[in-house]
Amino acid sequence: MGRMTPIAQVLFPALRWQDGSGFDHEAERIEEALRIGVGGFILFGGDAGSVRDLTDELRGRSRTPLLFGADLERGAGQQFRGATQLPPAAALAELDDLETTRRAGELTAHEARALGVDWVYAPVADLDVEPRNPIVGTRSFGGDPARAAAHVTAWIEGCRAGGALSCAKHFPGHGRTLADSHAELPVVPATRHELEADLAPFRAAIRAGVDSVMTAHVAFPAIDPSGAPATLSSAIIQGLLEQELGFRGAVSTDALNMQAVIEGGGEGTAAAVRALCAGCDALLYPPEPAAVAAALEAALGDALPHARAEAALAAIARLRGQADSIAPPAAEWGRPEDHAWALSVADRTLRVVRGEPLRLADAVDLLTVDDDVGGPYPPGPRDTFPAALRAAGAEVNEVAQATQGRALIVAVYADIRGWKGRAGLSERAVAAVVSALDAAPDATVVLFGHPRLAAELPERAAHVLAAWGGERVMQEAAAHRLAAGRTDE
C-alpha cells in the first residue's frame, strides 16, 4: 500500500466529511497517507469541533509535520459548521471598503488556525470579465483590475494578521473561461497584451507577500503555444510567474482530480509528474496518493530532475516553517460578535434590483427554486431563510406552487458551483418563476446569486432583492431586510 518516501511531502490528499460517518470513512485513506509521509491534507466540510479534533489527532500520529489546507473564500464557515460565514468576494468588492475586506481575511485566518488549518486557499485573484463564466462569478473581486488588486492585497494583509498562509488563485487567471475546469479543459484565446489586465491582481498579491499561488487548469496559447494547461506549463509557471513576475513563494496545483488537468496531462500519475516538473511545489487532491508518490520517485533523475524535486520540497518546508512561526490562537470560532459583524456586512451588500420588496406580512408563502442542484456534491442548506423569517414573527408556509391571493416570496438559489456548467439561470428555474408570477404577480423574488442574473428573470418580476449567494449569512441578511419594514397590523 505504499512506503514512506520524502517526495510524498509534496502531496496533499483530500478528506471529506460525510453526514452520519464524519471523517470515519476516510480512515483507510488517512492510514495510507500517513504511511507514505504526505505533506498534509485538504479538508472539506464537517463540524468545526470535529475538524479541530481531526487536525490535532493527525498531527499527533504523523511521523512528519503536516500542513492542513481548505477552500475558505467565504470565511471558515464556508466549509466548517459552527465557524463564521462571510459574503462572497464580489459582494465585498461592491462595498469597496478595503478595511472590511482586510477584516474578512483576518477573521477567516484566525478561525482557520483555531481549527488547525494553516493554509487558506484564497483569495481568488481572477477577474470577473466574462459574465458567462461558469466557475468564477461571485468568487471574484470584480472585473476592474485596479479594484480587484486592491481587495486582493487587503485580504492577504488580513490573512497574514490572522496567522494563516494565503494562496492567490488561479494563475494566470480563470476569469475569461467559458468552460468549467472541473469538467473540461478551458482554452483562453486572449492575446498576451489582453492578459496583462488579468495579471494585475496577481502582481498585487506578489507585492503583498502572498505565501503561495495556485495554478489554473486552463490553457493559454498566447503564453504557451503547446496548449498545456498552466498547471503543466513551465512557460507559465517558471517563465511568467517566477521569472517575469518575480514570485518566490510556493506554487500549488488546483485539484488534480479535475477533468481539465487529466485532459491536458494524462490520467492519474502522469499529470502529477508533469505538474512537479513544470514548477508546481504542492500537488493538491491527488486521487491515488501512493501511486503518485511511487511515480514521482520512479521519475527522479529521469523525467523529474533532482533539483526540481528538491526545490519543491524546500518550498513546502518554508510554508511549514512560516506556519510554525506563528502561534495559533485559542480554540475559538463562531463567536457571536463575529457573526454579528459578518451579518452587518452581508446586509450592506444586499441590492434591490427592481421595485420594492414586500414588507413581511403576518403570513407569507415561500416557494424555493433551487437552481444549484446536481453535480457530485449537494448544495448548502436552505433552511436559514425560512427560519429567520419565522424568527421575525411571520407565519411562513413553504409551498411547492403559488396560490392566488396570498403573499408570496420566491427564493431563487443561483450560485457558482463546480460541475454546474453555467453561470446563468436554467430554463427550468425561469419557468418556475414564471409559473409563480402567474398566480402571484406581486411576488417578491429573492435572488441568491449575482445581481446581474436578475436580467434573466421575467420582466414582470416587479420586485427583486439580490443577495449574491446562498450562504447562511446571506439568507439571514435577506430575511432581516424583508422583516425590517414588518408591522403587526
Description:
This protein is of the alpha/beta class. It folds into 2 domains: 319 residues, Alpha-Beta Barrel (TIM Barrel), CATH 3.20.20; 134 residues, Rossmann fold (3-Layer(aba) Sandwich), CATH 3.40.50.1700. Helices cover 38% and strands 13% of the residues. Strands 10-15-14-13-11-12 form a 6-stranded mixed beta sheet, with helices on both faces. A 4-stranded parallel beta sheet has the order 2-3-4-5. Helix 3 packs across helix 12 and helix 9 crosses helix 10. It is globular, with a radius of gyration of 23 Å. The model has no long low-confidence stretch (mean pLDDT 95).
Jot down its keywords.
15 strands, Rossmann fold, 2 domains, TIM Barrel, 489 residues, single chain, 15 helices, 4-stranded parallel sheet, alpha/beta, 6-stranded mixed sheet, globular
What is the gist of this entry?
This protein is an alpha/beta fold and 489 residues long.
Write the layout of secondary structure elements.
Blueprint: E1 11-12, E2 14-16, H1 27-36, E3 40-44, H2 48-61, E4 67-70, H3 89-95, H4 98-114, E5 119-120, H5 145-162, E6 167-171, H6 192-207, E7 212-215, H7 234-244, E8 250-252, H8 259-265, H9 269-278, E9 283-284, H10 289-299, H11 306-324, H12 336-349, E10 351-354, E11 363-370, H13 384-391, E12 395-399, E13 408-414, H14 427-439, E14 444-449, E15 463-466, H15 472-483
Parallel strand pairs: 1-9, 2-3, 3-4, 4-5, 6-7, 7-8, 11-12, 11-13, 13-14, 14-15
Antiparallel strand pairs: 10-15
Helix pairs in contact: 3-12, 4-5, 5-6, 8-9, 9-10, 12-15, 13-15
